[in-house]
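Might I ask for a little of your time on a matter of protein folding? What I wish to show you is a protein chain and, alongside it, a tokenised description of its three-dimensional fold. I should value your view on which stretches of the chain appear to form regular backbone elements. You will find the record immediately after this paragraph:
***
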Amino acid sequence: LAALQVEARTLAMLRGLLQQVRAACARLSAGARGLPSSVQDTAGHVRHGVEGVHATLARARSFHDLSDMVLAQSRQTVTRAQLSIDEFIEYVGQHAPLPWLVGPFAPALVEYPEDSPVEMAKWNGCVTVGGG
């Protein structure tokens, strides 16, 4: 009985983690709009692969429902997704403009000359670059 409880908790935890990864991939795919089509395609493939793994594991009631082949395919899919996300992040870091990275809700970037004093209370919430 204890082994069944551990298995059930492990599956529930795995489903929860995959749900979080699935949601992150959906945001990644949506955020890729406006980037080159190859980058959008990669984000879409990642999302699709993770959704497939999530759907497979969501149907399982125990590890006995999952064959070795399904587990191996799921592991490969998640590994490919991780590599694709790494490539996506590298591409964005090298090619995307700063406003795309920080988004519309980030504080404004404000530059100040090195020698001018800045009254910080006036700029609460802003990031200063080159401030003294």
